């Protein structure tokens, strides 16, 4: 049995199952009466290497699962019985492999094998198969433990839950002032082919060990309200409604979306993030976003950017180009990229001489604070989601997060795009991973004009509210108004047209070009493998004149940008007409009447 993630035409992430009949008859499960009579004492159990041990272990695991559902199982009893079940599986493995291996062949330690199986979540066992990790058919057939435990995952039904127009001077001033600066995994050897003597017993026990492990983990996790689960079903869509998630989660979108993403990509299990620590971390991050009660730079914006990053990782295939640690860093950077934002711009901090501007010497003032405050929070034992990273992993993670969040400083915008454009013009461009994910995060940070109109319009009004509040502070401090911050003299429609034409459209275009450059070679390998399996290639546009077409990603933002700009232009025309009429009435230029 083989599972893989495929990209259907609509762009949703689905799990494709390829099932084969097992041709086995499994014994019927024990009755409630049998379970009720079970004694969980571990002192008088049969030896783990006896035939009766598998039956005893399977029966106890069923009972533990039932008691867990009722919340009636002491932790010590649970631990002792799980240890017994683990030893039974190890004994079965040892018994079947010790006589098949020559003296020159090293044997994998049974405890290592067991813990690898036990700790690997079902998500990871049926995760995306990256092109550079694909194995030939013969090698897959020879990797018996992997095959057995992928079959185990099938038994678990819970797995399926698994150009530019002319713009007014004020808009040009705003654009200028804002966007310029005046480890290698160890692989099993192919000759190791352990098989179970009692396949039925081993499979049954293995399923329950895995279920018990995940159930114990889940008991420590926050529960997802049904309304949140319903909203998160659309998480893979480009125009995901984060406002609906905010309402469903009682104002905690970062907490639920952040956890869902880290779990979906397998980061929690891969880097051994304690669930309660993750919940503490996300809750504190959420509180930081709400600290200044900003209309725009708040927890809603953080969740929106994190979801958009998820779309870029998942729906374009970028995740297949990145390592697990790089994906982890990208998701966390998206979550914390505006942590404790003050609702004012870097320029306001510099002009007002704030303590934060003094601390960071007027350079990337807010971005430096977001990073510093987030890592200071991670130093708290109750929020340290990185506690099980090695020293090298931590350094790489921290460097990536710093690079990505600093790249969201809008004053680097034009230089960032210029550098990537220049790189992509080379005959054989080599894109640095840090620069690639930094550009992706930056584009996601400014992507709301590229979303569905109702979402974009709501974001625009929130952002203008925040700008106007800054303008009020500037008036009080005797500072000149920053562009678009004077509530009595701001051209809303024109500003958005300029923002789309000069900032968002070019950014998304360069980002798409970069992704197609990066993912083209990966796509070629998956295309070859999928063609051999009789599948259609994904994300490709072809014409009859070209036997081999260039790899293209789907760009749902193109249509949204076109539609939104059209609406804004219509609004700008109406606003101009209204201003002209008001000016005419104010100046009293209506023609005099004849007597």
UniProtKB/TrEMBL annotation:
EC number in record: 3.1.4.-
Cofactors that this protein relies on: a divalent metal cation
One of the GO BP terms on file: signal transduction
Molecular function GO terms recorded: 3',5'-cyclic-nucleotide phosphodiesterase activity; metal ion binding
Keywords: cGMP, Hydrolase, Metal-binding
Binding-site list for Zn(2+) 2: 338
Entry superkingdom: Eukaryota
Residues covered by the PDEase domain: 217-575
Positions with a binding annotation for AMP: 297-301, 338, 445, 496
Biased composition (Basic and acidic residues): 572-584
Family affiliation: Belongs to the cyclic nucleotide phosphodiesterase family.
Listed name of the protein: Phosphodiesterase
Organism: Vanessa tameamea
Lineage start: Eukaryota, Metazoa, Ecdysozoa, Arthropoda, Hexapoda
